[in-house]
Amino acid sequence: MPQTSTPSPSAEARTVSRRSGLSAAGAVLCALLAVGFGVLVPGSAAGRILRPRLSWVPSLDLDLTFHLDGLSLLFALLITGVGALILIYSGGYLEGDPRLGRFCGFLLFFMASMLGLVTAGNLLLLFVFWELTSISSFLLIGFDHEREEARDAALQALLVTGAGGLALLAGLVLLGLIAGSFDLGTVLAQGETVRAHPHYPAVLALILLGAFTKSAQFPFHFWLPGAMEAPTPVSAYLHSATMVKAGLYLLARLHPVLGGTEPWMAALGTVGAVTMVVGGVLALLQTDLKRLLAYSTVSALGTLTLLLGLGTRYAVTGFLVFLTAHALYKAALFMTAGILDHETGTRDVERLGGLRRAMPLTTGVAVTAALSLAGLGPLLSFIGKELFLEALLAAPQARTLLIAAAVLAGGLFATVALLVGYRPFFGPFREPPRAAHDPPRALWLGPLLLALLGVVLGLAPGPLGEGIIAPAAGAVLGQPAPVYLALWHGFNPALALSAASLLFGLAFFLAWEQLRRALSHGEPLARWGPAAGYRAAVAVLLRSASAVTRLLQNGYLRTYLMMTLGTVVILVGYPLVTRSLPPWTTGQLDLRLHEGILCFLILAAALTAVMTRSRLTAIVALGVVGYAIALIFILFGAPDLAMTQFLIETLTVIFLVLVFYRMPPLMRRSSPGSRLRDALVAGTVGCLMTALVLLAIGIPTHPGSREFYARESLAAHGRNVVNVILVDFRSLDTLGEITVLAAAALGVYALLKLRKEEPGKEVPGEERTEEACPR
């Protein structure tokens, strides 16, 4: 028996070290990018906008243009900074996993797509990166592709965001046509023109649809909790600084063009408020830590959308501060949930408790990040929450309703914060599946730094406000927007509302189990919810695809030909009938005797091929048609085409005769009705082609085309114009034809060499084993 060698422990250790080194290298790359973007902060604060450009397809207004202002810089810092810590965390979370290298590659692909999206200076380039984020997130969500749940979640995210991407493409194309350019700088300067255009409502609806699906706004929110099937590092990155923030970036970026109108405020305000409340309520039903955080993310995304809908300076400043704080604490909390799962073997809140002594470091990180989730001082999220409430107090419409929704959502935020930051670590001890202890440094470093950063920025928010938030707010508002951030604004109505939301949150937490049981009675209504609608839509799509496949792909060549020819007749014949086209040729045809004889011969041979019951006779008749056409080529001065035609026809006739010689005679198996239908289809196609030929003859050619091709052929060192056209003017087309012929030749060679292996006969030089020949 063959002996297999097992790798030595030192070899395994080197392999694990090499995989961990990949995540470390990726983290260093992200950190260097973050430092590079950080160097640009002073220039951005001074109003400088970087716009590197590389010409690509100027005739289509397609350039590789990048646009780096305050808004792009804020998102770029979050993407690279959080990404560096996520990669460090991934090295510890997936330590020993042979797929770690691939995982890091997918994660860097995701990061690069997001960076391209937030720095794109062309609408079409932005869309390309937009779709790349969907593809890379599909790879990450479905990373554990052996599990059906992961595959379904990845497909769901791809379909929902992909459908929104199609709507976004239509909206961006319309926007570029209205603005007269796809360049982002030009589009941002055409705000009044776009808003006054009659197609503005269509542009707004299409772009909002794309943004809402990407940022999980109601009723498209269901895909985001489903994405929790991804590994925890993916969840932490996707929810904090990347995928779900792409739609918010798009809305903020196009605010100077599309914002400020009644439809904009109504759509963003309504959808944002509903999403904010729905996400918070659904979070109360969850016991899995990741799903709790996922639904709180949905609620936070609704809050951010609502702020953009208000569009005031307070609202935009609150949007940017809240977005920054959310990226910090949400990444920290997701990584903390991953630590609990990694070290205890469960993420179920009901099975965790009293872990503060066994995991003191994790407890400190979780409590700090949870305080930020609740919006307590002295953290950065408290400042964002105050700005949010002050913007609502100044709202021009539906102020009371919006404030009530915000207080309710704030209470639900506080409840989730207590569930993820208090319940697993305090109270009576609950024995987890595995003995709990603090994780290795690679796992706690990232969440600790992010949690502390939220505290530092809350205590000293001035540099953040002046250096990053102010230029970003100016980019969103389309004008300079001075920003002053302070931790304490005094006793005011916003502080009272914040305190009320915290009291509601404490009450909800104390009654959480009763609330969850009460809300669970409404779960049967979920069969009519958006997620059920998605499943029903997918089922209808699959059934429709199956029906269409049965209709079109039925295995009959006759059906395929009729469908193809019928489509050509409709698409080509309709313009011939409805549009004013150049007149057909009306002159008399200069038909000489020998040409008439050839035409008669072609018609007679074609009719013979159709009417005969002998395959050999039909083959010969088709050969006569081909040879007659070759004679026409000779009569009209194209000997090279005639030679090609002679060769092709000769080989075709010989091959067909060899193949069909031993086959039985043709039998009439079709009914008279089907033959009549086939005759009508063939006659219609023939009439269409005749009409096209007559139309082409009647169109005058450009007077200088003959001289142009003759001159350029001599310049290409050729006197045969046809040959020069094939190898120079249409070189790629000819190359494609050669490639097809080469592939066909290889296929024929493989078929000729193929031989059926006799039963029981072994191939020389090979040993047949059960493993090599599975049943």
Question: Could you explain how this protein is built, in words?
Answer:
It is built from 32 helices and two strands. The chain is mainly α and 775 residues long. Helix 18 crosses helix 22. The longest helix has 32 residues, at 148-179. The protein is elongated and about 105 Å long. It starts with 8 loop residues before the first helix and ends in a 22-residue tail after the last helix.
Structural class: mainly alpha
> What is the average of the pLDDT values?
86
What portion of residues belong to β-strands? under 5%
End-to-end CA span: 22 Å
Oligomer: single chain
* Largest sheet strand order: 1-2
Helix content: over 70%
> Which word captures the global form?
elongated
Helices, by number, come to 32
Cα gyration radius (Å): 35 Å
Q: Low-confidence spans: pLDDT under 50, at least 5 residues? A: 1-7, 756-775
Short recap of the structure:
The protein is an all-alpha fold and 775 residues long. Helices cover 71% and strands 1% of the residues.
Which SSEs are present, and which pair or pack?
Elements: H1 9-39, H2 41-45, E1 53-57, E2 62-65, H3 70-93, H4 100-119, H5 123-141, H6 148-179, H7 184-188, H8 191-196, H9 200-214, H10 223-226, H11 232-240, H12 243-253, H13 255-258, H14 262-283, H15 289-310, H16 313-344, H17 360-374, H18 380-393, H19 399-421, H20 441-459, H21 462-477, H22 493-510, H23 512-520, H24 530-552, H25 557-578, H26 593-611, H27 615-635, H28 639-660, H29 672-698, H30 705-715, H31 721-729, H32 731-753
Antiparallel strand pairs: 1-2
Helix pairs in contact: 1-3, 1-4, 3-4, 3-11, 3-16, 3-20, 3-21, 4-5, 5-6, 6-9, 9-12, 11-16, 12-15, 14-15, 14-19, 15-16, 15-19, 16-17, 16-18, 16-20, 16-21, 17-19, 17-20, 18-20, 18-22, 19-22, 25-29, 26-27, 27-28, 31-32
